[in-house]
Amino acid sequence: xxxxxxxxxxxxxxxxxxxxxxxxxxxxxxxxxxxxxxxxxxxxxxxxxxxxxxxxxxxxxxxxxxxxxxxxxxxxxxxxxxxxxxxxxxxxxxxxxxxxxxxxxxxxxxxxxxxxxxxxxxxxxxxxxxxxxxxxxxxxxxxxxx
Length: 146
Description:
By secondary structure, this protein is mainly alpha-helical. The chain contains 5 helices and no strands.
């Protein structure tokens, strides 16, 4: 079970990001590749408390539903996302790519000491944050075929 806290998993994700190209088209959804990188970076910042998302009341924050969704259940394509995680203006391809790669390492270093509640799932363990971060990145990398 991949977790972004694993050095090996981080390297696999970094390699997949390295194989992306700004001109790639998504298999689903409306984001272009640059916006997707920006969105993934925003999610990592949100998990560290650097971006605040409005909490949403839902049954998804209750065990065992929360554990099933964080660790196992397939993610639906084109699922809605928190508006706070969609940036109106993105930077250049290279800037967004560099920021995301840096944030992956920053996340792995900082999540143990500065995690924030998830807007849907609420309080998460460090292990759950690492798994969720991996699954979110994997979802969007598959969206672009890598």
